[in-house]
Write a structure and sequence with these properties.
The complex is a heterodimer.
Chain A lengths: L8 H31 L11 H4 L9 H8 L1 H32 L7 H13 L2 H14 L6 H25 L4 H8 L4 H30 L2 H6 L7 H10 L5 H33 L3
Helix pairs in contact in A: 1-12, 3-12, 4-7, 4-9, 4-11, 5-7, 7-9, 8-9, 9-12
Chain B lengths: L14 H10 L13 H41 L4 H6 L1 H7 L10 H16 L3 H9 L5 H11 L5 H10 L6 H8 L2 H23 L3 H6 L13 H6 L1 H16 L12 H12 L11 H10 L8 H9 L6 H9 L7 H6 L2 E4 L2 E4 L7 H32 L2 H16 L2 H12 L4 H9 L14 H24 L4 H9 L4 H29 L3 H6 L7 H10 L4 H25 L9
Antiparallel strand pairs in B: 1-2
Helix pairs in contact in B: 2-28, 4-5, 6-7, 8-14, 13-14, 19-20, 19-23, 19-25, 20-23, 21-23, 23-25, 24-25, 25-28, 27-28
Classes of the chains: A mainly alpha, B mainly alpha.
Chain lengths: ~280, ~575
């Protein structure tokens, strides 16, 4: 989109106005996230820029909120819980999800649409309804307030993402490769791990990352299904925001932003690699 | 049948020979290499393929059905379930079928209520029932709690009179003879012997560990009624059995050592005055006959009067009885009616009083805010998607990161950012004051109201609008707009008549996605919405964790779920589920 040399004055004005408008919207998108980063280094217990910070006075900045995060036992317990729950849930949803995605991408699957609708449903149903249903049902069967219950709930929430990314990767999968492998004498299991898996691995990993972030970022379901023993990082942040608001939250938020930048980069790299790989495979 | 002139002279099942055989056979079915008809062979291989696919899907499907679909089904069930009244007050519910709906019920109904409440109190169920009915008529909770405290007095007057007649009525053993079945008595004796032996062995044990290992933990066999008294004295038997159950399960005691509750004597009095008990010919028939002859001259204290005069005069209120009757069926539409600001009253379905009509308002507000958020997302998302799809790939990929970063950032991070920015002493107000747009003593209220929710949620959901729009706009060929311009259209007309209609599917997809997500949001409205900026989902959470009215929460959830499913169906028709893109 470039301004042609014959553009009228009106078009010129609109061209630049449009760019300014877009710039403002991008600012709206990104500024809130960027603002909290400097605020998290605030030396005071304030949520706004102190005069000292604006004057770039080094004394007005400090790492005290980060120190608090790494020394406060409540935050550390929450971090530990998050680190224990998210990988377990991810492992569960990735292993079951990949298997099912392979099954779903075969040419003859009875009731494919209905099965797909059921498997995708955790993504569609509003979280508060999932949380309510799980709370009622899990307390009936004694899973409410247990570690297992939270992991199962989070795995269920992560499964649609695994299914979607892995089936998307399998769409371009060349089935003659598995036939060739079978022809050369490999069993289905060996074919899966030696031929199919390396090719769909980018999809599996990015599905896994989605599942991980879903669990790691999830707060509604864990609020209901979990008990104090399963208090995760988002839960602790939620309490902090609702009750005793402390700038430590901003330090945690900054750390999470850094983590999400890292994840975003990983997913993007994987996507490119997947495209490159599939571009190489004959179609 | 194989030809010896085969190029490789190979006899047996090869594809070539099969085709040749099939050719030779005049009308026979086409055969596969192994000689079976090709059709059957193909059908079999298709079946194997289907089974293998299902086998791969099955573990996940079962997992989702158990961890996710079953909970949703449970919630739907809870939204209509109402067994607590008929389970806790079975006798009363039955008696109330005869009630005219206006007057104070008769003595029989009160007798049934006393029996039900006595048992409920012992099982500590009456407070639960009280709070359940309190959702419908306020005051019932305290009425039940208070009534529960007085229940052991019902029938005391008869207890005294029976004992005065013959002291044997005080003995648990008399009741055992009257009520217990022979089988049970034998089983209990056996159990008692076992227990004694075990205790003797335990006493003989030399070490503490041994004694613990020998401890006798088997409970007494469950009490059983005998057939005769069940037929002869139905009421007494029914209450005595529940008495025995409570004694065994709650108190872990034996009915053979406990004097029955006063209410049992009340039931016995009722049975005998009604002329029952003649059929009894067991061991203590004499005692019973003596009692039957004496009850006529017993001093009578009607239960109805006791309730109305001693317990609480609220029991004369037809409203209370009406509520019990209205909610006596095992399934109720009451929760759904409550979600729509109606209530189930003894007189039928009525509108809630004006000041209690909150759910209509709440649904309206949820709709209004979701729509506002959706429109703000279109207004902000459309230019961005347009810009991204018209820039060179390299630049647009770079700018796309600015969209994806918020998308990937934790929801709570974004919410806390807005909480910090929008406060009265927050960054935005500071800047506005600094510029001079707003006076320092007149800072804007941007948080804990609808404004806060709308701003924060627009920001959170904007990527969900931009991404589908962008993917649609990328496929719009630029030469259509150029052609329109070269045919004399002004840029605005070209956009309006040519470009915009082609981008409508993207708008549709984005709108439904944003709307579905917005309508069920909980965290952000909870944190920045205050009291006026909250959604229906916040009310659901409130009913689950604070007011404990789970049925109402389930009904509200079911309505919301139905709404989302309808929208999702539309989304599927317009966009297709398989096209859900994750950026």
């Amino acid at each position: 989109m470039e301004l042609p040399p014959y553009a009228t004055t009106g078009e010129r004005i609109w061209f630049y106005t449009f760019r300014v408008i877009c710039g403002l919207i991008f600012f709206f998108l990104i500024a809130p996230i960027l603002t909290i980063i400097p605020l998290s280094f605030n030396a005071e217990n304030f949520f706004t820029f102190t005069p000292g910070m604006l004057a770039l006075d080094p004394d007005a900045y400090s790492m005290r909120h980060y120190e608090d995060f790494f020394t406060n036992s409540q935050w550390q317990t929450a971090l530990r819980n998050s680190i224990q729950i998210a990988p377990a849930a991810t492992l569960l949803s990735v292993s079951l999800g990949t298997l099912a995605a392979v099954g779903l991408s075969q040419s003859h699957v009875p009731a494919r649409r209905a099965i797909m609708a059921i498997l995708i449903s955790p993504m569609i149903v509003p979280l508060i309804i999932s949380a309510a249903g799980m709370y009622f049902f899990y307390s009936r069967i004694g899973l409410q307030g247990t570690w297992i219950g939270v992991v199962l709930a989070h795995a269920a929430l992560g499964i649609p993402f695994v299914i979607i990314t892995v089936t998307a990767t399998l769409v371009g999968f060349d089935n003659s490769l598995t036939r060739a492998s079978a022809n050369l004498g490999a069993g289905p299991v060996r074919t899966f791990f030696k031929v199919q898996m390396p090719l769909i691995l980018p999809g599996v990993i990015s599905g896994g990352l989605f599942a991980f972030i879903t669990s790691f970022d999830e707060v509604v379901v864990v609020l209901f299904v979990g008990s104090a023993g399963q208090k995760t990082l988002p839960w602790q942040m939620f309490i902090g925001l609702r009750e005793q608001i402390s700038p430590t939250i901003l330090a945690v938020a900054t750390i999470l932003v850094v983590i999400s930048i890292a994840l975003l980069t990983t997913v993007e790299l994987l996507r490119r690699r997947s495209e490159r790989l599939r571009g190489l495979s004959p179609s | 049948m194989t030809s010896a002139t085969d190029p490789d002279a190979y006899t047996g099942a090869t594809p070539d020979n099969a085709i040749r055989d099939a050719d030779r056979a005049e009308k026979g079915p086409v055969l596969a290499a192994d000689g079976t008809p090709l059709k059957a062979s193909l059908a079999r291989s298709l079946r194997v393929q289907k089974l293998r696919a299902l086998g791969l899907i099955a573990p996940l499907l079962i997992f989702i059905l158990v961890t996710f679909i079953a909970p949703i089904a449970d919630m739907l069930f809870r939204s209509v379930e109402n067994q607590i009244v008929s389970e806790t007050l079975p006798r009363t519910v039955q008696e109330l079928e005869r009630w005219d709906g206006e007057s104070v019920p008769d003595e029989e109904t009160f007798r049934a209520l006393a029996a039900d409440l006595m048992i409920a109190t012992e099982l500590k169920n009456h407070t639960r029932l009280g709070s359940r009915l309190n959702y419908e008529t306020t005051g019932i909770s305290s009425l039940f709690r208070q009534t529960g405290r007085d229940m052991d007095e019902v029938g005391e007057v008869y207890l005294d009179q029976f004992v005065e007649l013959d002291e044997a009525w005080e003995e648990p053993e008399t009741w055992m003879t009257l009520m217990a079945s022979d089988d049970w008595l034998t089983a209990r004796d056996q159990w008692a012997t076992d227990k004694e032996e075990a205790e003797a062995a335990q006493d003989a044990a030399t070490t503490a560990e041994e004694a613990i290992a020998l401890e006798f933990t088997t409970p007494e066999p469950d009490f059983q009624l005998n057939q005769i008294s069940q037929e002869a004295l139905p009421r007494t038997a029914s209450i005595y059995r529940q008495f025995a159950q409570v004694i065994q399960s709650e108190d872990e005691d034996s009915p053979s050592e406990e004097e029955p509750w006063a209410i049992v004597y009340q039931a016995l009095y009722e049975d005998l005055t009604a002329g029952r008990g003649e059929g009894y010919d067991g061991d203590i028939a004499g005692l019973l006959t003596e009692a039957r002859e004496a009850v006529g001259s017993f001093e009578e204290v009607p239960v109805r009067e006791f309730f109305l005069e001693e317990v609480d005069e609220d029991w004369a209120d037809p409203e209370v009885w009406g509520t019990i009757e209205a909610f006596s069926s095992p399934y109720t539409a009451g929760y759904f009616l409550a979600s729509a600001d109606f209530q189930l009253t003894p007189q039928g379905i009525e509108r809630q009083p004006e000041d209690q009509q909150i759910y209509g308002l709440l649904f309206q507000r949820t709709m209004f805010m979701s729509l506002t958020i959706m429109f703000s997302c279109i207004v902000l998302g459309y230019p961005i998607a347009f810009l991204l799809s018209n820039l060179p790939v390299r630049t647009s990929n770079l700018l796309l990161i600015l969209v994806l970063l918020p998308f990937w950032t934790s929801l709570l991070v974004r919410t806390s950012a807005w909480k910090v920015l929008l406060q009265q002493q927050g960054v935005i107000n500071d800047i506005l004051v600094w510029i001079g747009l707003v006076a320092d003593n007149n800072r804007l209220e941007l948080i804990n109201n609808q404004t806060g929710t709308i701003i924060a949620m627009t920001h959170i959901l904007l990527p969900f609008m931009i991404l589908p729009l962008y993917s649609v706009m990328k496929t719009i060929p630029p030469y259509y707009v150029r052609a329109a311009k070269s045919l004399g259209a002004t840029p605005f007309t070209a956009f309006r008549r040519v470009y915009f209609p082609q981008s409508v599917p993207g708008i549709g997809a984005g709108c439904i996605l944003v709307f579905i997500l917005a309508i069920g949001y909980y965290i952000t409205p909870e944190l920045v919405g205050g009291t006026t900026g909250t959604f229906i989902s916040n009310r659901i959470a409130y009913h689950i964790s604070s007011s404990l009215n789970w049925g109402l929460a389930a009904a509200l959830g079911s309505i919301l779920l139905a709404l989302v499913l309808v929208l999702y169906y539309l989304y599927d028709r317009i966009v297709g589920i398989d096209n859900v893109s994750l950026g």
